[in-house]
């Protein structure tokens, strides 16, 4: 589970795995980080959640092909309406761009792991 939205944080720790972007709450965390001015270059610390080659490849592919319409919020019943509203207000293209902007940050440790 992701930590509460960290608007005052200087760093965002991301532990991506192949299914991370299926969860709309995780997507909201990534989008919010960028939306509140979080730096992708210096502010994101990324550690792959697995060393398994197929999982690493699937994680990179998930960031590369990400689209918010495939993320779900069903496991967060109390937040489901708020997360859906976030997508509506922020618009799909802005959320997609924010997540895909992390691809180089995900790709670097993935290349090193393989």
Structure characterization notes:
It is globular, with a radius of gyration of 13 Å. Helix 2 runs antiparallel to helix 5. A two-stranded parallel ribbon has the order 1-2. It starts with 11 loop residues before the first strand and ends with a helix. The chain has five helices and two strands, in the order E-H-E-H-H-H-H. Helices cover 48% and strands 5% of the residues. With 114 residues, it is mainly alpha-helical.
In what order do the strands lie side by side in the largest sheet?
1-2
What's the main sheet like? 2 strands, parallel
Low-confidence stretches: none
Question: Helical proportion?
Answer: 40-55%
Strand content: 5-15%
Number of helices: 5
Q: What's the total number of strands?
A: 2
Tell the overall outline: globular
Helix- and strand-based class?
mainly alpha
Radius of gyration: 13 Å
**How do the SSEs run, as a string of H and E?**
EHEHHHH
Tell me the span between the first and last alpha carbons: 27 Å
What's the rounded overall pLDDT mean? 84
Task: List strands and helices in order, with pairings.
Elements: E1 12-14, H1 24-35, E2 44-46, H2 53-64, H3 80-90, H4 92-100, H5 103-113
Helix pairs in contact: 1-4, 2-5
């Amino acid at each position: 589970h992701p930590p509460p939205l960290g608007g005052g944080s200087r760093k965002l720790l991301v532990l991506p795995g192949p299914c991370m972007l299926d969860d709309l709450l995780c997507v909201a965390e990534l989008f919010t980080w960028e939306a509140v001015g979080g730096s992708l270059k210096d502010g994101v610390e990324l550690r792959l959640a697995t060393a398994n080659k197929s999982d690493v490849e699937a994680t990179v592919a998930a960031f590369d092909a990400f689209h918010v319409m495939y993320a779900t919020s069903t496991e967060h019943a109390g937040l489901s309406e708020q997360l859906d509203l976030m997508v509506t207000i922020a618009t799909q293209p802005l959320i997609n761009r924010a997540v895909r902007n992390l691809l180089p940050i995900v790709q670097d440790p993935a290349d090193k792991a393989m």
